[in-house]
Specification:
337 residues, mainly alpha, 13 helices, globular
Length: 337
């Protein structure tokens, strides 16, 4: 089977933007590919963070991923596979400074850190993390990487580093990983639908996939719909479109088509209250199973943690084999135990 590598940072709750945009596809891909899914805690250190919270968030997101259908055997914690950082250093020597300066996410994220404090600390790790990301991908010799448009640049960097390494050592060692484009829906903020759903914007802007029913319904009920006279002009506003996208993504395709028909009928004015109730009902139905499974997993916390440590150790064997071969090809020494 072809191998897929994808990863997520442990930055808190998984919201519907994360789920419909990535995690739902992770679950589907497990039936077709050999999947390696990482919780990349080293990457979470590139932005200001709390050490004890990082450890807590790492385990929290692992329990959440399992509750959403990701198989534990496919999961690993990045810091339990130290070969990532060693390969990351080697790759630093195959990546140019100019390439990193062209990474748009560094500017975006550093601007985010400096908001309100122009003298805020910006780490070298934030600048250099695309190289570690290349190591994450290439250390498992991944054939495909599921990506969105905002990650294409980083995958291209990984391909460039792999090509430069191959040329330097005189061997086609790394197969260049390809982008795997699947239907990844972009879910927008409930309070400001001109922006994507994000926890950093505040509580009103996102819905956790483990949200309590009462809170979920309240957030959907207060979601921004039309701005000005968009509906009277026959234009579907981003807020209304966002509600329709979530309804369809939740598996309610027939209801989605029915309500779209009512929305487009010039003689009928669709009630946004009815649309919001339909979206809330569908999300509550979807999340109820996730919430119950997560409770079961948390009731067996010690056993599940051991399971993830074991899967990390198994996945690490792939990383160890690659690093050993890379060091030999690079003229470095290998430690023998």
């Amino acid at each position: 089977m072809k191998r897929i590598l994808s990863a997520i940072q442990p930055t808190g709750e998984i919201h519907f933007g994360n789920y419909f945009g990535a995690v739902q596809n992770w679950v589907r891909l497990q039936d077709e590919y050999q999947c390696v899914y990482g919780v990349v805690d080293y990457h979470a250190m590139t932005m200001p963070y709390n050490p004890s919270k990082l450890r807590e968030n790492t385990w929290d997101i692992l329990f959440s991923l399992m509750a959403l259908g990701v198989k534990p055997d496919n999961l690993f914690i990045q810091s339990l596979v130290p070969e990532h950082t060693e390969l990351g250093w080697i790759f630093n020597c195959f990546c140019s400074y100019g390439e990193l300066t062209r990474m748009t996410q560094f500017k975006d994220k550093s601007d985010q850190v400096k908001e309100g404090d122009k003298d805020a600390f910006i780490s070298v790790g934030l600048f250099d993390y695309p190289v570690l990301q290349a190591a994450d991908i290439l250390i498992y010799r991944a054939d495909y990487v599921p990506v969105g448009k905002d990650q294409e640049q980083h995958l291209e960097l990984a391909r460039n580093i792999a090509t430069r390494f191959n040329n330097t050592v005189g061997k086609e060692y790394f197969v260049l990983p390809e982008a795997l484009y699947s239907e990844a829906l972009k879910i927008r903020s409930l309070a400001d639908p001109t922006k994507k759903m994000s926890k950093s914007l505040g509580d009103r802007h996102y819905i956790s996939v483990f949200e309590e029913e009462k809170t979920l319904r309240k957030k959907i009920g207060s979601a921004v719909t039309d701005l000005g006279d968009e509906q009277s002009q026959g234009i579907m506003s981003p807020g209304v479109e966002n509600l329709f996208i979530m309804l369809k993504a939740a598996g309610k395709k027939e209801l989605h088509e029915q309500l779209i028909g009512l929305y487009q009928d010039p003689e009928i004015k669709l009630s946004y209250k009815d649309l919001k109730e339909a979206v809330a009902d569908s999300l509550v139905l979807m999340t109820s199973g996730f919430i119950e499974l997560r409770k079961e997993l948390l009731a067996n916390k010690k056993e599940i943690k051991n399971q993830i440590k074991e899967s990390s150790a198994e996945i690490r064997k792939l990383a160890q084999e690659t690093l050993k071969e890379v060091k030999e090809l690079s003229g470095l020494q290998n430690v023998k135990f």
